[in-house]
């Protein structure tokens, strides 16, 4: 098994190819999650959780920490004050991020009260001012993630006006969640599910603006769906499906990026992540901080439920299993062997 201990994310260049990306997801896409996902795909563009300008400027934690292996990796930034946005963009570039993305899509009350997120779609001039200020001080791409509309501002003309004003400020890359957001009456979870998807509106935007890079987000659950979207737009962003069923990324590099590589097996990934856990030196780090992102690794496989249960039961509490992932894998392999034996006995 020694060769299984040595696999690491494979990246040779931070050049951004936007054909497939994993969405920024609050409380989920932290540096441990991103390292795990990078083991599975070398090419997918990864995004941080949203970080606010206030946290970066005034907070005491290291909100910009990431593993060098994560490239290409983008920082998603929440804020609306141009000077603060520019200052934080400089910080991101200095730390080595490949892109800084402005959050104009999150509909939560906490975000709205801070005057950033989806509510900024009603203030495109404010977003444009941030874009200009940020681009004046960094060389990395400054991009925007937005919705197709908010509340009663949900006609194509409203959407197009927002894009035109921000694009005129210098932004040439937009990631569009193909749902409007209701800022009154719906929770963030409901805003991911209730407003209907409107892919044609995003396709229309790309057709009207061939000079812009347009990625689409929302409701895409398979690589076949992603490939069909690439006939209309430049990139596809996948969120919760990529998190719940992360091994689907094993086919991303070959299917969407045209690579000719062999993705690591689930077993290899487990060994690599166990080694990653053992390398951590932060006194506050616990194995569960990484393992919690791996619950879906055996999604759809024999032993998948056993894997989730083992990690949940033995990765938390005061005395977590130091060999959590390896022992969890042993439980899965035992279950799979039992299934195989049972099936062979039926055939016999």
Notes on the protein architecture:
The protein has helices at residues 31-40, 53-58, 82-95, 109-113, 124-135, 156-168, 188-191, 199-208, 223-229, 240-244, 252-257, 266-279, 287-291, 304-314, 324-347; strands at residues 20-22, 45-52, 73-78, 99-104, 142-147, 173-177, 213-217, 235-238. The protein has 348 residues and is an alpha/beta fold. An 8-stranded parallel β-barrel has the order 1-2-3-4-5-6-7-8, surrounded by 6 helices. The chain contains 15 helices and 8 strands. The chain has 2 domains: 12-257, TIM Barrel, CATH 3.20.20; 266-347, Up-down Bundle (Four Helix Bundle (Hemerythrin (Met), subunit A)). Helix 3 crosses helix 5, helix 5 packs parallel to helix 6 (156-168) and helix 12 (266-279) packs antiparallel against helix 15 (324-347). It is globular and about 65 Å long.
Supply database-style keywords.
Four Helix Bundle (Hemerythrin (Met), subunit A), alpha/beta, TIM Barrel, single chain, 348 residues, 15 helices, eight-stranded parallel β-barrel
Count of alpha and pi helical runs: 15
Bulk shape: globular
Radius of gyration: 21 Å
- How many beta-strand runs? 8
Low-confidence stretches: none
Content of β-strand:
5-15%
What is the structural class?
alpha/beta
* Largest sheet, spatial ordering of strands: 1-2-3-4-5-6-7-8
What number is the mean pLDDT?
A: 92
Can you tell me the CATH topology of the largest domain?
Answer: TIM Barrel
From N to C, what is the helix and strand string?
Answer: EHEHEHEHHEHEHHEHEHHHHHH
Total number of distinct structural domains: 2
User: What gap, in angstroms, lies between the N and C termini?
Assistant: 33 Å
Main β sheet profile = 8 strands, parallel, barrel
What is the CATH first-level class name of the largest domain? Alpha Beta
* CATH superfamily caption of the largest domain: Aldolase class I
Function: Catalyzes the synthesis of 5,6-dihydrouridine (D), a modified base found in the D-loop of most tRNAs, via the reduction of the C5-C6 double bond in target uridines. Specifically modifies U20 and U20a in tRNAs.
Binding site for FMN: 24-26, 76, 145, 177, 217-219, 239-240
EC number: 1.3.1.91
Family: Belongs to the Dus family. DusA subfamily.
């Amino acid at each position: 098994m020694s060769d299984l201990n040595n696999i690491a994310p494979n990246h040779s260049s931070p050049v951004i190819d936007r054909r497939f990306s994993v969405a920024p997801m609050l409380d989920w896409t932290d540096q441990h999650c991103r390292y795990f996902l990078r083991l599975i795909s070398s090419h997918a563009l990864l995004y941080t959780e949203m970080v606010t300008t206030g946290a970066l400027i005034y907070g005491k934690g290291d909100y910009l920490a990431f593993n060098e292996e994560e490239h290409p990796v983008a920082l998603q930034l929440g804020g609306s004050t141009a000077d603060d946005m520019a200052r934080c963009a400089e910080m991101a570039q200095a730390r080595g991020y490949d892109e800084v993305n402005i959050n104009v899509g999150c509909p939560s009350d906490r975000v709205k009260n801070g005057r950033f997120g989806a509510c900024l779609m009603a203030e495109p001039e404010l977003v444009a001012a941030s874009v200009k200020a940020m681009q004046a001080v960094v060389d990395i791409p400054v991009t925007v993630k937005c919705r197709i509309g908010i509340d009663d501002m949900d006609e194509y003309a409203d959407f197009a006006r927002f894009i035109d004003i921000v694009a005129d400020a210098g932004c040439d890359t937009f990631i569009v969640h193909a749902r409007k957001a209701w800022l009154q009456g719906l929770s963030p979870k409901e805003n991911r599910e209730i407003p209907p998807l409107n892919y044609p509106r995003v396709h229309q935007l790309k057709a009207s603006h061939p000079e812009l890079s347009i990625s689409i987000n929302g409701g895409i659950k398979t690589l076949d769906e992603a490939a069909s979207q690439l006939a209309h737009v430049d990139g596809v962003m996948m969120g919760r499906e990529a998190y719940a069923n992360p091994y689907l990324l094993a086919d991303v590099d070959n299917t969407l990026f045209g690579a000719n590589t062999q993705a690591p097996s689930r077993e290899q990934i487990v060994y690599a992540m166990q080694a990653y856990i053992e390398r951590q030196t932060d006194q506050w780090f616990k194995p569960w901080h990484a393992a919690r992102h791996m619950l879906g690794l055996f999604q759809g496989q024999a032993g998948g439920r056993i894997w989730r249960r083992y990690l949940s039961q033995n990765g938390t509490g005061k005395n977590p299993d130091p060999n959590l992932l390896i022992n969890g894998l042993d439980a899965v392999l035992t279950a799979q062997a039992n299934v195989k034996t049972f099936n062979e006995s039926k055939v016999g």
